[in-house]
Amino acid sequence: MVMTPGIIDVHQARERFVMKKSYSIENGYPGRRRSLLDDARFEAKLNRDSRDEVSEDLLPEEEVFVTGGSESGPVNVHLILGLRDDLDSLVHSLKSIKSCKGKLLHVESRASANKESEFDVIIKLNISRDNLTVLMNLLRQSDTVGRAHLASCTKPPSEKLAEIWFPKHISELDMCNHLMTRYEPDLDTGHPGFTDKVYRARRKEIAEIAFNYRYGQSIPRVNYTEEDRATWNAVYKELVSLLPNNACKQHNDVFALLEKECGYSADNIPQLEDISNFLKKRTGFALRPAAGLLTARDFLASLAYRVFQCTQYVRHSSSPNHSPEPDCIHELLGHIPMLANKDFAQFSQELGLASLGASDSDIERFSSIYWFTVEFGLCQQNGQLRACGAGLLSSYGELLHALSGKPQLLPYDPSVCAVQPYQDQDYQDTYFVAQSLEDSLQKFRSWVMENIKRPFEVYYDPFTQSIALVDSVTSLAYVTRQIQTDLTHVCTALQKLK
After folding, report:
1. ∠151-157-162 over CA atoms, to 5°?
2. Could you tell me if 98 and 10 are in contact, meaning their C-beta atoms sit under 8 angstroms apart?
3. Are 235 and 321 in contact (CB under 8 A)?
4. Catalytic site residues?
5. 3-state DSSP call for residue 169?
6. Which of 44, 148, 409, 447 is least surrounded by CB atoms within 10 angstroms?
7. What is the CA radius of gyration of the chain?
8. Which residues of 238-261 are buried (b: 16+ CB within 10 A; e: fewer)?
């Protein structure tokens, strides 16, 4: 079968491609309770296995011929895909090419000699090198593609192709994939909602909002049920009674504003669009609906753009005090108030920026730091120990445990946080205490500078919401000009203050 460009309708709308490498039990994820650090470790293993598999399976006749084009410009390539099922697999692959702005030049199929595939498809296309990296990631993560080979008959692929892809513009967060093929209550027999068909259908309905969401759209509102509101009410009342004497000042100050401006109350679950608009005015952070887990790498990349991936569903009513996955109770009561603080928002963004293009081992270290600061961090305020981590601020049991004097308390040190062992079957045994949020940020900056060996720096342009790679004299000159503009205003202000 030979097809020429234009025969298959690949649609005009850009399609979200859901990652098929699930972190669910059916795909080898160990255990039910999840953390960003576990996700990072599991993701690193998947990446190693994937690289080994591609290296072993690459055959001489399955080559990609890279011709023409500049170092970062478009190239003509031949891809060989091993598809597992019918024509729908091909349609999905062509949609991936469309989403990555590839120009289709030729398509040809043949019977597959590989037992993992029903047939092979040879695709010739014109595509930029950066987008080719994205495309190969999408194809290799799809459950309809058994093999996706990329090589050269004359020379190895450009080193640029070997770089780890990350979003260069905030709109490319559309390409950051959810981890699951389906919805966690459907996959995990230990999930509180596994036997509740009504809850599972409800979760699927809410998840579709995230799967269909695109950059620039307003976040659709959710009509929560009486059961949802009752679960929210039970947790909300208990936490509100504890926060004044246990949460940090930054959290408590913002929480009062959220009640006044965003509809936070025991009887009402606030909507993400309202909260997102509130955060934009406070710290420039915005919310994006998430159906569930993302890869640790993609989640951290979102923070680089001051975007927080936020779920909209409520945990199952049979387990109001604990959820095996992030839900809106955890995120709206724990994360949101802290993201409205400028120091905490800056720390979150710089953690995200440092993760862009980082190695798998560095992603693990960043995830561990995130775990012990953003999720379970403590701080000193006026001689008192206070909670600033979302995992504590949204769980009254662990909040009281952390401040009880029983667990080990260590001074905040990123080099220790990055490798600190932890257990996730019960409350934490060890917590890190920061002198202040600003002190946390300064220590993190110093640690990144000394320990993260990345061959480039990144610069976030807030005007275009894009990331510039600072890896040459030219790109450094561009960043310097932006900084000089800010320094001019600082010098002018100093003169006036004199």
Report:
1. 105
2. yes
3. yes
4. 330, 335, 375, 394
5. strand
6. 409
7. 24
8. bbbeebeebbbebbbebbeebeee
Quote the CA–CA distance of 317 and 405 in Å, as a whole number: 31
What is the reported pLDDT for 12? 31
Residue 130 binned pLDDT confidence (cut-offs 50, 70, 90): confident
Contact of 333 with 394, CB cutoff 8 Å: yes
Q: Coil, strand, or helix at residue 300?
A: helix
∠ CA 478-483-488, rounded to 5°: 130
Please check whether residue 448 is in contact with residue 470, taking contact to mean a CB–CB distance below 8 angstroms. Answer: no
Number of helical H runs and strand E runs in the chain: 19, 13
**Residue spans of beta strands (DSSP E) within 89-235:** 103-111, 119-128, 145-149
N-terminal to C-terminal alpha carbon distance within the chain: 79
Mapped onto helix, strand or coil, the DSSP state of residue 12 is: coil
128: number of Cβ within 10 Å: 18
Q: For the chain, which residues make up each domain, given as ranges?
A: 2-165, 184-451, 458-497
The CATH architecture assigned to 184-451 reads: Orthogonal Bundle (1.10)
Question: Is the distance from CB of 466 to CB of 170 less than 8 angstroms?
Answer: yes
Q: If 0-12 CB within 10 Å is exposed, 13-18 middle and 19+ buried, where does residue 405 land?
A: exposed
Distance of CA 454 to the CA centre of its chain: 20
Tokens of 422: 């932890």
User: Within the chain, what is the greatest distance between any pair of CA atoms?
Assistant: 80
SS (H, E, C) 65-129: CCECCCCCCEEEEEEEEEECCCHHHHHHHHHHHHHCCCEEEEEEEEECCCCCCCEEEEEEEEEEH
Global pTM value: 0.72
Between 235 and 50, name the one with better pLDDT: 235
| CB 287 within 8 Å of CB 276 | yes
- Burial string for 473-488 (b: 16+ CB within 10 Å, else e) reads eeeeeeeeeeeeeeee
Closest CA to 58 of 150, 178, 194: 150
Structure tokens at 366: 């960043």
Tokens of 442: 């300064």
Choose the weakest-confidence range: 84-88, 138-142, 475-479: 84-88
What crossing angle do the helices spanning 437-451 and 342-355 adopt, rounded to 10°?
Answer: 10
- Return the pLDDT at 313: 93
Long-range contacts of 234-238 (CB under 8 A, 24+ apart): 234/320, 235/320, 235/321, 235/329, 235/333, 235/394, 235/396, 236/265, 236/266, 236/329, 236/333, 237/266, 238/396
In this structure, whether the domain defined by 2-165 belongs to CATH 3.10.20.30 is answered with no
